[in-house]
Design goal:
Number of helices: 6
Distance between the termini: 125 Å
Strand order of the largest sheet: 2-4-7-8-9-13
CATH topology of one domain: Lipocalin
Shape: rod-shaped
Oligomer: single chain
CATH superfamily of one domain: Type IV secretion system, VirB10/TraB/TrbI
Low-confidence stretches: 1-9, 34-38, 67-72
């Protein structure tokens, strides 16, 4: 059989190898391939942050608020604000009583409200929130009592109340006051001047009983008149030196208590 033989011309390969470095060509091809892969990577994206409050947090806060409102609702039988009780004190009190001193009272008659009866003998507690004795400016003594609780059927419940009457006298702004003596001080000073004038007139009358005294007798009267005028003019100022009357209420004094807020009995 005939045999075919091919002679390859490798002269071209030798020329290429002489002109180019084959190792360098391989490295350049790898680098170019790497650059191509890098260029084909997807572009970077900048993350977007949402500063708004998550919806879940808003819903949670709403639920908490509703629960808080339900918890704050007072339950039980209501004794409405404005309810009044007639009571007797179990201790004496005065303008010298110290602030924060505790007081107790007992109701003298039953009070009927819708769904509840507050019987006679119900105990109330209070505290002296302000006090002072008579003052040198003519201002009277002061007692201010704040009602803090009541005990009903063995249960003590917090209440807020004030005193509206003491010994059948109306009390305004919860201030039990001693008599103010400023006007009394003015009146006392004017009377002092009048008495001085009367004494001067009497002296003038006595001096006029003899001839020598008759000449000088007008002088005491004039002096008495001047003294009386000075006392009258100065009385508004000197009235401030009059000390006000102190206030003192013995044990067993009858008061009227008025609730200033609703109270609830469970």
């Amino acid at each position: 059989m005939p045999v075919f033989a091919y002679d390859l011309d490798t002269s071209v390969n030798s020329q290429i190898e002489q002109k180019y470095d084959s190792n360098k060509l391989n490295k350049d091809m790898k680098v170019n391939q790497t650059d191509t892969n890098l260029n084909n990577k997807p572009p970077k994206t900048t993350p977007v942050f949402d500063n708004s409050t998550p919806t879940v947090t808003k819903v949670t806060n709403t639920v908490k608020n509703k629960i808080s409102n339900i918890t704050n609702v007072k339950t039980g039988t209501k004794i409405p604000s404005g309810t009044k009780f007639t009571v007797k004190s179990n201790a004496a009190v005065s303008g010298w009583s110290g602030v924060n001193s505790l007081l107790t009272f007992s109701s003298t008659n039953a009070v009927y409200k819708s769904g509840i009866t507050i019987p006679a003998g119900t105990q109330f507690k209070g505290v002296i929130s302000a006090s002072h004795s008579g003052q040198i400016t003519g201002n009277g003594g002061l007692i201010k009592i704040k009602i803090t609780s009541m005990t009903l059927n063995g249960k003590t419940i917090p209440v807020e109340g004030k005193i509206t009457k003491a010994n059948s006298k109306n009390i305004f702004f919860n201030n039990i006051k001693g008599a103010r003596q400023y006007l009394q001080g003015i009146d006392n000073k004017i009377n002092q001047g009048i008495n001085f004038y009367k004494k001067a007139r009497n002296l003038s009358s006595q001096m006029s009983s003899n001839p020598l005294g008759t000449i000088l007798s007008p002088l005491p009267t004039i002096t008495g008149w001047l003294g009386s005028a000075v006392c009258t003019v100065a009385s508004p100022v000197t009235g401030l030196t009059q000390k006000g009357k102190n206030i003192s209420l013995p044990s067993g004094t009858v008061y009227e208590i008025k609730l200033t807020q609703d109270a609830y009995i469970n």
